[in-house]
Amino acid sequence: MLLPHPGTFRWLGPVLSIVLGSLAVAGCGGGETTSGTGGSGGTTATTGGTGGVGGMECDAGGTPPSPPSDWCERIPAGPPGANSPAVDWSAAHALVRFFGPVEAYSLADQALAGALASDEALSGADISVYANALPGVVCAHASGGASLGAAKVSSMGDVAIVTPGTGPVALPEGTKAVFVDLRELPWASGLRDVIVAAVAPALAAPIPGLAIRVRRHFGMVDEVFAANNVYTNSLAKAASLPELPSGGAVDLPLAVLTDADMPAEAVEIAATLRLANRAWLFGEDLRVEVAESRWRGIGPSGLAIRVRDLYAAGGQRLPDEIPADSRSAKPECLAGEILSRGPIPALSLGAAERASIKKTAPFDDIQAPGDPLGDARASLIIADGAARTFFPYFSVVGDIIDPRLEETLSDLPAAPSREDQYHALHRFGNALSDGHNFVFDGMPATAGYLPVYIEDIDGAPVIRRSAEPLIVPGDTIASIDGVPAADWYAIELARAAGATPGYHFNLATRELNAMSGPLALGLVHADGAEETVTVDPHPAADYFSVLVASARPAGPLTDMGAPDLYYINLDNSVLDAITTFRDRLTEAGSAKGLVLDMRGYPGIDHYEVARRVLQTAGSSPIFRVPVLTGPEPPVYDESSYPMSPLQNPSFAGPIALLVGHTTVSAAENFSTILVDAGRVHVIGRNSAGTNGNITGVQVPGNFTFSFTGMDIRHADAQHSVFHGIGIVPDIEVPLTPQDFAAGVDPELEAAIAWLAMQ
Q: Quick one: 448-544 is in which CATH superfamily?
């Protein structure tokens, strides 16, 4: 369990009550009024050693003991978590991972995995293991529950003492100097605003905010698929923190009263005023790490997390500590000398040795297995935090990831296997409804593959192509190791993602294609006969050989009775060189019509392919990338590419574009260019509805988790949504097992029929 925060038992100081008639004065304070009630602030008091104020003595309390050097002991606790502990963990860890001064994401992730092996950490009851693994980055405390009180104004002679709080702040008439008391303030929502309101009456001119440096994300840098991707991170000097506005007619002498531990906003504003030589610091030195942090509650505890570096106006990084001008246990008792101190001298900035925010390069930073329960819990929380921070499609698919996080965590066994962790991540990813959601086990138990290409026909898995002699085109899989296929798919569909039903089915089927050993399959042949076969795993090459609806090469469709039509298969297994495409398009120049088969995945520059069949200028889709400058809500960078036609070779005749359920990502990008330009007639079945660069997250246990990192829109006036809709055929083609058994390509036949009528 966490110990109470050191500030809980803060020295309260002696209370001296002096009764003069009907007047009571506590310590060295004068009469206290609540702001907005008028009055001159009541009784005055003298300050010890300064000649006194109003004829009364004030004990300044002497120099207090030096405060702890550890910033974790200089920061108060904030409020408890606002959500379930799991969701609070997700938000807190995402701050640490993506915005904190960590050398590598894996260091933060391993700290999380190490902590979450404990139920007490998962509940938030004791999160110290996590904080201890990340010194200089986070601090853990039991949460505090204090809220802001009303603003108060008291006076000591002609010095007003303002305690920030809710409500207006009015200085007593005749005020010649102001003390703003930042001690004992809670880490509460709206704290910065009330401190600003307390300071403003002493300012005739605004004070610029401090400069900040943060990590800036252009999308989420890919950790899994490619070292160089469209997504990047960098260090950014963000816009300065908000200025401290003025609210007074003249600049009044000003001091801020500081304590050993204060919330981030209090330290930030005190530092801003002192560095601008606009306010004295009376009380305690400031730890700058505190001002660079944010609080995130986790159940009954919470974390202070450093998420920025602070800089002075001249560009120098703030030192670790900003010294008080007068260290005092009772700094209010210095009121009697502020008017005689003269100008505030400039500070000489000391050393900045704390860890700084850095650019990260997380690609291929694999995290080896550790404690299975800690790994499994951490991987789910990391996936939730990454998706919450960067996934762009919640407004399209709905937002259910937090309940799904709680579900998957609660379903984990006490000692999860690798298969348990894999399935838990899959089930969580299902909540994204994204065809780019994949979970990869870095230590797979796959023995080989079932080399078949399966189409879903009315919800049933039907073989279209096969490299397994015991399974032939037209077969329908009725059972899998004795489990009815419908029941098997119900389980896998609940785990797989996918933005459209057809591609969702395809992603679930991939769990069938990956084999751990021999597999018994119940088959129904195209003629209705039933058979059960046992197949052994095949090498990957066999599987890859059947991964597309058609392997037909380019050429005239003479064998199908259409010698005046030309066919080009754009799948990478058939066409892998742009020069070959140019040659085939040259051959197609005299054809009456062209069939472009995009039921697979392109292996050449599909932008050039599109430009050689466009007849007027077109456009790529709209690419909307989330940009986060520090831990603020994203703004979206929108871009597109103009698509001017290319000649020699080109094709100007009618084009039938074949698409299917596995037309995905780059294949959909290509298809969208031609569809938005009105250049093609689309034939086949709905595409995957998933475009945009993929990005992946490395998680504990040597697993990875991925999703689409940008929002793709049509290049129309409305920037219409593409995700989950995809390319919708102009002619929907039904498929049958009998066609597959007979070697018929129904989509190609439909394309020939349409082109014949043009």
A: PDZ domain (2.30.42.10)
